[in-house]
Design brief:
The chain has about 325 residues and is of the alpha/beta class. It is built from 12 helices and 12 strands. The chain is globular and about 40 Å long.
Length: about 325
């Protein structure tokens, strides 16, 4: 009887999961001045983008790995696919590290990009060093770029990784060809943003599990195997040392960002609890001419939850600004 009940339960789960797979989503994109819809017919001829099945983490491309020593005993772990193509640097979220990009690494390398990711101080593979000498976001990244002999590059910043993008853009504007800011307020904070953030994040939110805060409920419901892989990545990313809170190298303002004239692409998750689309749109409106994309049902980990879509639109953006 137990085996029969188990089989019924298994079949019921498959039926429910199949129904979820059939749901369609609409992705909106366009410029900051006015979003337009971009729809793709799915296999059933329904307008929209079908929720994908869990994507198996692909085989990774060969890389060169290293740890760049910094002052105070700190260091930066990095991996680099090499190659002669334009360089792309991935800047990870607060819960992540250089391990946050398994869905991007082989795809961007195959598309002809020299693909690089690194862990900030205290994260996977990167010694935290002295907490009296934490360096700066832009300073550490530029030290790595000098070490790798890279003069100009594209950059992707996810969540807290977006803070690095804004600091680097203001501090070294001539070195960025373009920038993608995903699920991030871009390192710009003021009284209004602080109060609104406090309002939408309820008391006790910070104590919730990372996977609840960062992965959208649609993905958690449909793809528990992918959630388990994300949790494993997050645990490895935490590192063995103390948490390092770095500072910006430069004062960051919207006026400074706008004056740079660096092509920008904002990507928001429709189910992001930290930075919902309305907050991302507010940031995009500060940069006339920037591009925007809202991905429905996705949480704070768009590169993990919708990797095929994420990779395609980011690669297209970079090629446009090569």
């Amino acid at each position: 009887m137990d085996k029969v009940e188990d089989k019924i339960s298994h079949n019921r789960r498959n039926i429910i999961k199949g129904a979820a797979m059939a749901a369609a989503a609409v992705v909106t994109s366009g410029t900051a001045g006015g979003a337009t819809s971009a729809q793709t017919p799915d296999a059933c001829g329904v307008e929209g983008i079908r929720e994908p099945e869990h994507v198996t983490i692909p085989r990774q491309a060969p890389v060169t790995e290293g740890v760049l020593p910094l002052s105070g005993g700190a260091g930066i772990y990095y991996w680099d696919t090499g190659g002669d193509g334009p360089a792309v640097v991935f800047s990870h979220p607060g819960t992540g590290s250089a391990l946050s990009w398994p869905y991007q690494q082989p795809v961007f390398a195959a598309a002809g990009f020299r693909t690089i990711a690194y862990s900030r101080r205290g994260r996977y593979g990167s010694p935290a060093g002295s907490l009296d000498d934490t360096g700066s976001y832009a300073g550490d990244l530029d030290a790595l770029m000098v070490h790798l002999n890279i003069d100009k590059f594209h950059m992707v910043g996810l969540a807290a990784g977006g803070f690095v993008v804004s600091d680097y853009a203001v501090s070294y504007p001539d070195k960025l060809m373009s920038m993608v800011i995903a699920c991030s307020l871009f390192g710009l904070w003021d009284k209004d943003i602080d109060s609104r953030s406090d309002f939408i994040l309820s008391k006790g939110f910070s104590a919730m599990p990372s996977e609840f805060k960062e992965i959208g409920p649609a993905y958690r419901w449909a793809h528990p195997e992918g959630v388990r892989e994300w949790i494993e990545m997050e645990e490895k990313s935490s590192g063995a040392g103390p948490r390092v809170h770095q500072r910006d190298m430069s004062e960051i303002t919207w006026d400074k960002i706008r004056s740079l004239n660096i092509p920008a692409f904002f990507i928001a998750g429709g189910a992001d609890l930290y930075q919902p689309p309305s907050m991302m749109r507010a940031a995009a409106r500060q940069m006339p001419g920037s591009e925007t994309l809202v991905v429905p049902e996705v949480g704070h980990a768009v590169q993990w939850e919708q990797p095929e879509l994420f990779n395609r639109v980011v690669i297209e953006f970079f090629r446009k600004h090569a």
